[in-house]
Write a structure and sequence with these properties.
77% helix, single chain, mainly alpha, 256 residues, 3 domains
């Protein structure tokens, strides 16, 4: 079988059409998997494994397209050509088809691992290390008058994942916690819970400090009234810092 008749046979068996269809499908899978992968904060190695698995699917597609055909919605075994080649059968044919599939997969694999795809992935990797992000998280929480305990009232699972990421030096997970610390909404419920945690401390100071303790009680009640006043988001941000200052004034360390 010469090269011309081989190409004709590949066309007759719709091998090229199957390769094009599979390539489009593989590309679509990568476009769907990549954002999902980043959403779950999987490592970039997962995407590499998926690319390799999709590449290995090309030889399988070539083999299946050579053997089978779809007619009237049914999968049937493709009929042999009228003038087949005795040489091109068995292991030799299998090697040829596998080689064709690998050749079809090579451009995409090279693009991902050595070309623009690899460079794009390298640029998307977070640059700050986890210890630096940990310091930024502490600063952000301090500026907003919040603690990890307060964040956990909003989304405890996210906070636990972030803490684990800090312990594992996972920069992606730490970056997610930093974003949460900077954008988590401060609600009246959070501030009331912060003040409720201080109730026993205020009562104890009031009993032991006399007049000074009374001033602390007045400030505590004033903060409580402000929380119930139905303020806007900006006012709650400011009030959160006031509550944190009052907490430090009482000598109660913020929970981290």
């Amino acid at each position: 079988m010469d090269s011309g008749s081989l190409v004709a046979e590949l066309k007759r068996r719709r091998v090229f059409r199957a390769l094009v269809g599979y390539g489009i499908g593989a590309f679509a899978v990568l476009q769907i998997v990549e954002p999902i992968m980043h959403g779950f904060r999987w490592s970039d190695e997962v995407l590499s494994y998926i690319v390799v698995a999709l590449a290995l699917g090309f030889p399988v597609v070539v083999m299946l397209a050579w053997i089978f055909d779809v007619k009237a919605g049914r999968i049937e075994r493709t009929q042999e050509a009228a003038h087949g080649s005795v040489w091109l059968n068995g292991p030799r044919l299998a090697l040829l088809l596998v080689g064709l599939g690998l050749c079809a997969a090579t451009p995409g694999v090279l693009w991902f691992f050595a070309g623009p795809g690899h460079q794009t992935h390298a640029r998307s990797a977070p640059s700050p290390p986890a210890p630096a992000l940990a310091e930024q998280i502490e600063q952000t929480l301090g500026h907003r008058g919040l603690s990890f305990e307060d964040l956990a009232e909003i989304n405890g699972a996210r906070v636990e994942r972030g803490k684990q990421a800090l312990a594992d030096h996972d920069a992606n997970g730490a970056a997610d916690l930093l974003a949460f610390a900077a954008t988590a909404p401060i609600t009246p419920e959070i501030l009331r819970k912060k003040l409720d945690r201080l109730d026993g401390v205020v009562a104890s100071r009031a009993r032991t400090l006399g007049g000074v303790g009374g001033l602390l009680e007045d400030k505590y009640l004033g903060l409580y009234k402000a929380v119930k006043a139905g303020l806007g988001p900006k006012e709650y941000e400011h009030l959160s810092r006031q509550v944190a200052d009052f907490e430090r004034e009482l000598g109660r360390p913020a929970v981290r």
